[in-house]
Amino acid sequence: xxxxxxxxxxxxxxxxxxxxxxVATRKIATLIDAGAxxxxxxxxxxxxxxxxxETGAITSYRQGEYxxxxxxxxxxxxxxxxxSIVNQQVFDDAEQVGVLANVVDTPELCRxxxxxxxxxxPLMIAIxxxxxxxxxxxxxxxxxxxxxxxxxxDLARFAGGLRSQVKSRLKSVDERRRFWxxxxxxxxxxxxxxxxxxxxxxxxxxxLDAAEEYQNILGGGARLGEVYLVGAGPGDPELLTLKALxxxxxxxxxxxDNLVSKDILSLVRRDAERISVAKAKGRxxxxxxxxxxxxxxxxxxxxxxxxxxxxDPFIFGRGGEELASxxxxxxxxxxxxxxxxxxxxxxxxxxxxxxxxxADSVTFVTGHRKNRGYFDLPWKSLSTDRQTLVFYMGxxxxxxxxxxxxxxxxxxxxxxAVVEQGTRIDQRVLVTRLDALPEEIASNxxxxxxxxxxxxxxxxxxxxxxxGTNLITSELAVS
Length: 479
Description:
Elements: E1 14-18, H1 22-33, E2 37-42, H2 47-55, E3 60-63, E4 76-79, H3 84-97, E5 100-103, E6 116-120, E7 123-127, H4 134-147, H5 152-160, H6 163-169, H7 173-185, H8 187-193, H9 197-218, E8 226-231, H10 242-250, E9 253-256, H11 262-265, E10 273-276, H12 288-300, E11 304-309, H13 319-329, E12 333-336, H14 341-348, E13 361-366, H15 379-382, E14 387-392, H16 398-407, E15 415-420, E16 428-433, H17 437-443, E17 450-454, H18 461-464, E18 471-473
């Protein structure tokens, strides 16, 4: 985070702008809109600035060269002159006296920045690239402008006038949150945005009476919660489904495993409790039974629990075991499928899992079994021609995978790919032969999370690879 996002209440606060051209005019306009007491220092000014001086929208204007004394008593300064020397001096002086400074279009001389704004006052959305790509920030603003109804401005004001009433009648934080979510997604919001304020007020009172009665019946808001079993996909946050994102934003607590990327975890509601239940081969920090019990306990306390799992919950994700525990405890749940690691990683590596020239089927295989009895698999059927094999959790057992497949009749020259950190920006793809698999994994320091893909489709990687540039082709690989 290059800049700490913050909103300043500038009503009546002294702010100075050094400069009087078109750029300075735009900056002054935003300060006036924010209610600031604006001073301007410049040799010349635009006609619009002159008009603001005449109407009193600008508190004071000094015609002349900038002086350090112009910063006296100011909360912040914006330098918008054509002189880099003057702008640098403004910044240096501001640093000396502790005034927040912004030199337009010079990020290295900014203690604060002016973001692009989506204005639905009192709802405000600020967007910034930290000065790195202002056009991109503007494009983001344009997208948000089309997605956020202007009626949200009325809705925010409507809700703001009722917060104290809701807080006094609904004592439970969770109950208040649920009530507001219902309000903003239901008929009350529609009435407000349609301008039917009287009907909205009646509907609000009815909903609040019902929520208060329900809270009292359950004793302070205690209610049975719900569990969302959500597939987070293989890593790229843009591969999340819309439903997954919605439930992640609703959850009161999130249980996540070590395959969930930081980018995806950042999309969870800010005030939600986050609990890591990460497990790794040989390092089981939390047993599966404990995870099951924790979900039941939290939902039993009335919380909405998001069980966030990498890939798809039902493909080697123990999702079935977790749901069984919820069924036994009578806990309601929803399941949101995710893009599996096999589908996502293969696609981002340019490997079609099936292709009529190479494979008629695809088989997903786990690298270990429930009772730790490794490789009690039907190796003969796995070693037949014209199929694709995808091994989950098989990196440390690559030598045994090779030996079992070759021993069951698979050609040593069969193409193999290892996809590390699939779909993420640091993805690496190693392409080699089956007989060289463990040695190539070691020499290239491939690490988990990674998938092993075996079969003729791997030969398409080099021509179909599209994501990133980290493609490692072994000299032994089949061309």
